[in-house]
Specification:
Chain A is mostly beta strands. Chain A has no helices and eleven strands. In chain A, a hairpin with a 2-residue loop joins strand 6 and strand 7.
Protein backbone atom coordinates (compact mmCIF):
# COMPACT_ATOMS: atom_id res chain seq x y z
CA UNK A 1 0.00 0.00 0.00
CA UNK A 2 1.49 3.31 -1.12
CA UNK A 3 -0.74 5.74 0.78
CA UNK A 4 0.35 8.48 3.11
CA UNK A 5 -2.47 9.89 5.23
CA UNK A 6 -2.20 13.44 6.59
CA UNK A 7 -4.19 15.32 9.20
CA UNK A 8 -5.66 17.79 9.90
CA UNK A 9 -6.90 19.17 6.57
CA UNK A 10 -6.72 22.69 7.96
CA UNK A 11 -5.21 24.32 11.01
CA UNK A 12 -5.55 27.78 12.52
CA UNK A 13 -2.91 28.92 14.99
CA UNK A 14 -2.19 32.21 16.73
CA UNK A 15 1.14 33.93 16.16
CA UNK A 16 3.72 32.44 18.49
CA UNK A 17 1.85 29.17 18.89
CA UNK A 18 2.88 25.65 17.93
CA UNK A 19 1.54 24.08 14.73
CA UNK A 20 1.42 20.29 14.62
CA UNK A 21 0.67 18.26 11.50
CA UNK A 22 0.55 14.48 11.50
CA UNK A 23 1.12 11.80 8.88
CA UNK A 24 0.79 8.03 8.85
CA UNK A 25 2.07 5.56 6.29
CA UNK A 26 1.56 1.87 5.61
CA UNK A 27 4.46 0.79 3.41
CA UNK A 28 7.40 -0.20 5.62
CA UNK A 29 9.69 0.03 2.58
CA UNK A 30 9.48 3.84 2.74
CA UNK A 31 12.77 5.14 4.04
CA UNK A 32 12.77 8.89 3.42
CA UNK A 33 10.16 11.27 4.79
CA UNK A 34 10.26 14.92 3.70
CA UNK A 35 7.92 17.79 4.47
CA UNK A 36 7.13 20.36 1.82
CA UNK A 37 5.72 23.88 2.04
CA UNK A 38 3.66 25.25 -0.82
CA UNK A 39 2.46 28.81 -1.37
CA UNK A 40 -0.34 29.60 -3.85
CA UNK A 41 0.86 29.51 -7.43
CA UNK A 42 4.20 27.94 -6.50
CA UNK A 43 5.62 24.45 -6.51
CA UNK A 44 6.32 22.61 -3.25
CA UNK A 45 9.57 23.57 -1.52
CA UNK A 46 11.46 21.19 0.76
CA UNK A 47 11.36 22.21 4.42
CA UNK A 48 12.95 19.37 6.32
CA UNK A 49 13.34 15.60 5.90
CA UNK A 50 14.13 12.56 8.04
CA UNK A 51 15.18 8.93 7.62
CA UNK A 52 13.72 6.16 9.84
CA UNK A 53 16.94 5.56 11.78
CA UNK A 54 16.42 8.90 13.57
CA UNK A 55 13.49 9.69 15.91
CA UNK A 56 13.72 13.47 15.70
CA UNK A 57 15.27 16.13 13.53
CA UNK A 58 15.25 19.85 14.16
CA UNK A 59 16.06 22.70 11.82
CA UNK A 60 15.37 26.14 13.23
CA UNK A 61 11.69 26.37 14.18
CA UNK A 62 10.82 23.14 12.33
CA UNK A 63 11.02 19.70 13.95
CA UNK A 64 10.12 16.28 12.59
CA UNK A 65 9.21 13.57 15.08
CA UNK A 66 9.32 10.02 13.74
CA UNK A 67 7.76 6.90 15.29
CA UNK A 68 8.85 3.89 13.25
CA UNK A 69 6.84 1.30 15.20
CA UNK A 70 3.64 3.30 14.83
CA UNK A 71 4.48 4.24 11.21
CA UNK A 72 3.77 7.88 11.98
CA UNK A 73 5.64 11.12 11.68
CA UNK A 74 4.78 14.70 12.45
CA UNK A 75 5.89 18.26 11.77
CA UNK A 76 6.06 20.76 14.60
CA UNK A 77 6.39 24.45 13.80
CA UNK A 78 7.44 26.38 16.88
CA UNK A 79 6.73 30.11 17.33
CA UNK A 80 4.44 30.06 14.28
CA UNK A 81 4.46 33.26 12.23
CA UNK A 82 1.95 34.72 9.73
CA UNK A 83 4.55 34.10 7.01
CA UNK A 84 4.26 30.36 7.75
CA UNK A 85 0.68 30.44 6.40
CA UNK A 86 0.82 27.97 3.52
CA UNK A 87 -0.12 24.42 2.60
CA UNK A 88 2.12 21.72 4.07
CA UNK A 89 2.57 18.27 2.62
CA UNK A 90 4.23 15.23 4.07
CA UNK A 91 5.69 12.72 1.66
CA UNK A 92 7.53 9.42 1.57
CA UNK A 93 9.92 7.68 -0.78
CA UNK A 94 10.94 4.06 -1.25
CA UNK A 95 14.32 2.45 -0.55
CA UNK A 96 17.46 3.83 -2.04
CA UNK A 97 18.70 1.83 -5.01
CA UNK A 98 15.30 0.65 -6.19
CA UNK A 99 13.80 1.87 -9.44
CA UNK A 100 11.20 3.88 -7.54
CA UNK A 101 13.78 5.75 -5.50
CA UNK A 102 13.02 9.42 -5.82
CA UNK A 103 9.32 8.93 -6.56
CA UNK A 104 7.49 10.76 -3.80
CA UNK A 105 4.12 9.74 -2.42
CA UNK A 106 2.41 12.79 -0.90
CA UNK A 107 -0.19 13.24 1.79
CA UNK A 108 -3.34 15.23 1.09
CA UNK A 109 -2.01 18.48 2.55
CA UNK A 110 -2.76 20.77 5.51
CA UNK A 111 -3.70 24.39 5.04
CA UNK A 112 -2.07 26.33 7.87
CA UNK A 113 -3.28 29.80 8.78
CA UNK A 114 -1.35 31.76 11.39
CA UNK A 115 -3.25 34.74 12.74
CA UNK A 116 -1.24 37.83 13.77
CA UNK B 1 17.77 31.66 -12.29
CA UNK B 2 19.12 28.17 -11.55
CA UNK B 3 15.81 26.62 -10.51
CA UNK B 4 13.42 24.34 -12.41
CA UNK B 5 11.62 26.29 -15.11
CA UNK B 6 8.20 25.36 -16.49
CA UNK B 7 6.38 26.88 -19.44
CA UNK B 8 3.76 28.01 -19.94
CA UNK B 9 2.62 28.97 -16.46
CA UNK B 10 -1.02 28.87 -17.46
CA UNK B 11 -2.83 27.17 -20.33
CA UNK B 12 -6.52 27.31 -21.16
CA UNK B 13 -7.63 24.93 -23.86
CA UNK B 14 -10.84 23.60 -25.31
CA UNK B 15 -11.81 20.00 -24.71
CA UNK B 16 -10.40 17.76 -27.39
CA UNK B 17 -7.37 19.92 -28.16
CA UNK B 18 -3.76 18.80 -27.65
CA UNK B 19 -1.45 20.63 -25.27
CA UNK B 20 2.28 20.43 -24.60
CA UNK B 21 4.18 21.62 -21.55
CA UNK B 22 7.91 22.11 -21.19
CA UNK B 23 10.20 21.62 -18.21
CA UNK B 24 13.80 22.78 -17.98
CA UNK B 25 15.47 21.11 -14.99
CA UNK B 26 18.46 22.30 -12.99
CA UNK B 27 21.32 21.78 -15.43
CA UNK B 28 23.35 19.21 -13.50
CA UNK B 29 20.31 17.15 -12.45
CA UNK B 30 19.97 13.88 -14.34
CA UNK B 31 16.58 12.86 -12.94
CA UNK B 32 13.38 14.59 -13.99
CA UNK B 33 9.91 13.90 -12.60
CA UNK B 34 6.39 14.88 -13.61
CA UNK B 35 3.56 15.16 -11.09
CA UNK B 36 -0.07 16.24 -11.32
CA UNK B 37 -1.76 18.20 -8.55
CA UNK B 38 -5.51 18.79 -8.42
CA UNK B 39 -7.10 21.40 -6.17
CA UNK B 40 -6.88 20.51 -2.51
CA UNK B 41 -4.73 17.44 -3.08
CA UNK B 42 -1.08 16.53 -2.86
CA UNK B 43 0.97 16.03 -6.01
CA UNK B 44 0.59 12.61 -7.66
CA UNK B 45 3.49 10.99 -9.48
CA UNK B 46 3.11 10.60 -13.24
CA UNK B 47 6.49 9.56 -14.64
CA UNK B 48 10.22 10.06 -14.35
CA UNK B 49 13.36 10.08 -16.46
CA UNK B 50 16.96 9.30 -15.72
CA UNK B 51 18.85 11.16 -18.41
CA UNK B 52 16.83 10.41 -21.57
CA UNK B 53 15.40 7.08 -20.38
CA UNK B 54 11.82 7.01 -19.08
CA UNK B 55 12.10 4.58 -16.16
CA UNK B 56 8.63 4.50 -14.66
CA UNK B 57 5.09 5.53 -15.55
CA UNK B 58 2.11 5.75 -13.22
CA UNK B 59 -1.27 4.19 -13.97
CA UNK B 60 -2.48 7.82 -14.02
CA UNK B 61 -0.58 8.31 -17.27
CA UNK B 62 -3.19 7.15 -19.78
CA UNK B 63 -2.35 6.61 -23.44
CA UNK B 64 -3.40 10.21 -24.11
CA UNK B 65 -0.33 11.35 -22.17
CA UNK B 66 3.20 11.16 -23.47
CA UNK B 67 6.42 12.49 -22.02
CA UNK B 68 9.83 12.83 -23.61
CA UNK B 69 13.28 13.94 -22.63
CA UNK B 70 15.09 13.65 -25.95
CA UNK B 71 18.62 14.71 -25.01
CA UNK B 72 18.48 14.21 -21.28
CA UNK B 73 18.00 17.93 -20.71
CA UNK B 74 14.54 19.53 -21.02
CA UNK B 75 11.36 17.45 -21.04
CA UNK B 76 7.94 17.82 -22.62
CA UNK B 77 4.61 16.45 -21.46
CA UNK B 78 1.90 16.22 -24.11
CA UNK B 79 -1.76 15.57 -23.49
CA UNK B 80 -3.80 14.60 -26.52
CA UNK B 81 -7.58 15.02 -26.83
CA UNK B 82 -7.80 16.87 -23.52
CA UNK B 83 -10.72 16.21 -21.20
CA UNK B 84 -12.12 18.37 -18.40
CA UNK B 85 -10.70 15.90 -15.89
CA UNK B 86 -7.20 16.81 -17.10
CA UNK B 87 -7.56 20.26 -15.51
CA UNK B 88 -4.82 20.40 -12.88
CA UNK B 89 -1.43 21.82 -12.02
CA UNK B 90 1.35 19.88 -13.74
CA UNK B 91 4.55 20.00 -11.74
CA UNK B 92 8.05 19.12 -12.82
CA UNK B 93 10.89 18.33 -10.44
CA UNK B 94 14.52 17.42 -10.88
CA UNK B 95 17.22 15.84 -8.77
CA UNK B 96 20.56 14.09 -8.90
CA UNK B 97 20.48 10.29 -8.77
CA UNK B 98 20.31 9.48 -5.08
CA UNK B 99 20.10 13.19 -4.29
CA UNK B 100 16.70 13.45 -2.69
CA UNK B 101 17.83 16.49 -0.73
CA UNK B 102 18.41 18.31 -3.99
CA UNK B 103 14.91 17.52 -5.20
CA UNK B 104 13.53 20.78 -6.59
CA UNK B 105 10.08 21.51 -7.98
CA UNK B 106 9.18 24.07 -10.60
CA UNK B 107 6.24 26.44 -10.19
CA UNK B 108 4.08 24.28 -12.42
CA UNK B 109 1.79 24.73 -15.41
CA UNK B 110 -1.86 25.32 -14.55
CA UNK B 111 -4.05 23.64 -17.19
CA UNK B 112 -7.72 24.51 -17.51
CA UNK B 113 -9.80 22.52 -19.99
CA UNK B 114 -13.07 24.23 -20.93
Amino acid sequence: QQQVKQSPQSLIVQKGGISIINCAYENTAFDYFPWYQQFPGKGPALLIAIRPDVSEKKEGRFTISFNKSAKQFSLHIMDSQPGDSATYFCAASLNAGGTSYGKLTFGQGTILTVHP
Amino acid sequence: DTGVSQNPRHKITKRGQNVTFRCDPISEHNRLYWYRQTLGQGPEFLTYFQNEAQLEKSRLLSDRFSAERPKGSFSTLEIQRTEQGDSAMYLCASSLVGGLYGYTFGSGTRLTVV
